Fold this sequence. Notes:
The structure holds two protein chains of two kinds.
Chain A: H1 13-38, H2 40-43
Chain B: H1 15-26, H2 36-43, H3 47-75, H4 77-100, H5 104-124, H6 127-133, H7 138-167, H8 171-195, H9 220-223, H10 227-248, H11 250-257, H12 267-295, H13 297-318, H14 323-352, H15 357-364, H16 366-388, H17 398-416, H18 431-434, H19 438-451
Helix pairs in contact in B: 1-7, 1-8, 2-3, 3-4, 3-5, 3-15, 4-5, 4-8, 6-7, 7-8, 7-12, 7-14, 10-14, 10-16, 10-17, 11-12, 12-13, 12-14, 13-14, 13-17, 14-15, 16-17
Main location (chain B): membrane
InterPro entries (chain B): MFS (IPR011701), MFS_dom (IPR020846), MFS_trans_sf (IPR036259), Proton-linked_MCT (IPR050327)
Region (Disordered) (chain B): 424-452
Amino acid sequence: MSSSSSSGPPSRRGLIAFAWVWVGVPLAYGLYELVQKATQLFTG
Amino acid sequence: MSPPVAPPGWSRWLVPPAALSVHLSIGQAYAWSVFKPPLESALGLSGTQSALPFQLGIVMLGLSAAFGGTLVERNGPRWAMTVALICFSSGFLLSALGAATEQYWLIVLGYGFVGGIGLGIGYISPVSTLIKWFPDRPGMATGIAIMGFGGGALIASPWSAQMLESFGSDSSGIALAFLVHGLSYAVFMLLGVLLVRVPRTEKPVGGDGPSALDGPQVSARNAVRTPQFWCLWVVLCMNVTAGIGILEKAAPMITDFFANTSTPVSVSAAAGFVALLSAANMAGRIGWSSTSDLIGRKNIYRLYLGAGALMYGLIALAGDSSKPLFILCALVILSFYGGGFATIPAYLKDLFGTYQVGAIHGRLLTAWSTAGVLGPLIVNWIADRQEEAGKDGASLYTMSLFIMIGLLAVGFVANELVRPVDPRHHVPVPASQEEPTDQSKEKEAADVQQQQ
């Protein structure tokens, strides 16, 4: 019994998660550095 | 290279990270200032000379986006992202060679000319594709990508500074930093090249929403002949000029505004203010652009230009009386500045359709180049004249602020003049698309289901 006819196209959840982590991690680093700097407005 | 068509089951949520990988990389351009002091001391350059690679890069961004847009539409997003990757990375590699051999012209040629082409092609590369994948939410989709351009500088600025600290600020340290940048960005942008796909169908993946081919379709050649294009050109130019005006002088401005008060602003606090403005700029890109999907493009520009003028008025009249008021108004202005950039592709799509929206967007970016010269020129020139006249504090900027209000008013009127494009400019619809057969409807529905 082949399930290929009933199963849909492959799930891309892993790829989606990987792609968002790929761009999300550097962006989070940039935002962290930005917040560190921005707090100087209130503490400096 | 033919545009890469999505296989069955390809998710549209893979396209925004593909776009982000390119925009987060090329956004590095706004962090060029990190390299200026080391280059000046290592190669004996003046401040004007060390700014040359960045300035040429921005000029090339405008030119390549304007003239390369049609090629991007013809060859598809993967071709465009590949060109952007090759140009942007080899720009850094040429700069590394220039720094290592102390040949500054190679840095100008590499980063400015070659890298600048990468900036322009990379900037417009995902726009058309994102709009086709998200015809139901074009503002949000392009907002994500264009937010990335703002985010690129946030990443590159501390990253490049740390690298120079580790490698040293002499010519060999700078060369090594350029080399690492070139290689790292090539790997990072590769994700975009590999992931980007054009949709199999023009129907929205969400189901019942609008199709990417709904509404008028106008070619780039015809678009520049319409008053609508030039109205939007004025809108973008005025909005960007007003934003750059404040961004350019943010640190000295807040210091001067409160210099004669009981709570003067320190140098580090002024740096914190600039960082906060960058955050508002980024948040505006995604936030306001997504809001435009709900309230409409014309209304959101009424807000950017009308409320923006009001904020400038508040700063001019009462900015030096309250620090929170000054900061709040500046943050709102910068969020409108970012929003103006991010919403314009969706506005173009509403007026001209998706047919060549990337190419039309490329041509419209000449408004950005113009504003990039106009904004700093107005604020700096007037501040210098006021200083010569013996003024100080907030009064140095009063005239500039009122000029900005005038420019925003011009933009507001231009936005009010925007009307639907005359049908004579539309691309004729092929007969096959006018009356879809039952069979083609079924095939399209199946494609839509597979891409969810």
